[in-house]
User: Fold this.
Amino acid sequence: MNDAALEDYRKRLEARREELKLLSSGAKEARKPVELDQQSVGRLSRQDALQQQAMANAQEARRAGELKKIDAALARIEEGDFGWCAECGEAIDPKRLDIDLTAMLCAPCAGGLRR
Assistant:
């Protein structure tokens, strides 16, 4: 993989990382604990708030997982391992990387076709 392609992947990964961080900071309010005061909030409204909080927490966990994958991909770029399958050592098809910038395996290894 040439330097221009690696730099393009790096920029795309960094942009996605910044986007995830912005989404995370914007959703802090939704993840706050729900007040227990049933005088100001009815039981059903509180249940709805708890459900929204649980969904916001799950979404934050998915963002955190994606951020870890992005950081790992950026580390692979620095180490010179980006674009190479961690299983078989073959090059990962650029079309696969365009779909998932954090892919560590080529399509055959990811699909269990190569053993």
Remarks:
- The radius of gyration is 20 Å.
